[in-house]
């Protein structure tokens, strides 16, 4: 089992950048495919990005494509989400999630129920 802890959230002006981090416990982090999701008040949790355990397969939600970059460092048990050109609609609690798998297919990666392990979330606020 893996424990996940997100950090790096905060308040940023529209157009600004933030880098979220997700620290994973355990020695088998490289066995997990990872995802980032977000949930704004009154809205459903939505998919943001997915990265396979090797880092080769990466998918993004259309709403963040070209602005956000997911990456991982298996030696450090870390996953990152670099967020640039932030918009007020990006404001949400951001969660990282994990699944023991080489990676998910594009049709499966956005489904939150395919990820058994979740962090507690980190708040991102974007001021206009």
Report on this structure.
This protein is mainly beta and 128 residues long. 0% of the residues lie in helices and 48% in strands. The protein is globular and about 40 Å long.
Keywords:
128 residues, mainly beta, seven-stranded mixed β-sheet, 0% helix
Could you give a quick summary of the protein structure above?
This protein is mainly β. It contains no helices and eleven strands. The strands form two sheets. Strands 2, 4, 5, 6, 9, 10 and 11 form a seven-stranded mixed beta sheet that branches. A four-stranded antiparallel beta sheet has the order 1-3-8-7, with no helix packed on it.
- Beginning-to-end CA distance, first to last residue: 40 Å
Report the average pLDDT across residues: 96
- Over all CA atoms, what is the radius of gyration? 13 Å
How many strand units?
11
Encode the helix/strand succession as letters.
EEEEEEEEEEE
SSE layout and pairing:
Layout: E1 4-7, E2 10-13, E3 18-24, E4 32-39, E5 46-51, E6 58-60, E7 68-73, E8 78-83, E9 92-100, E10 117-118, E11 122-127
Parallel strand pairs: 2-11
Antiparallel strand pairs: 1-3, 3-8, 4-5, 4-9, 5-6, 7-8, 9-10, 9-11
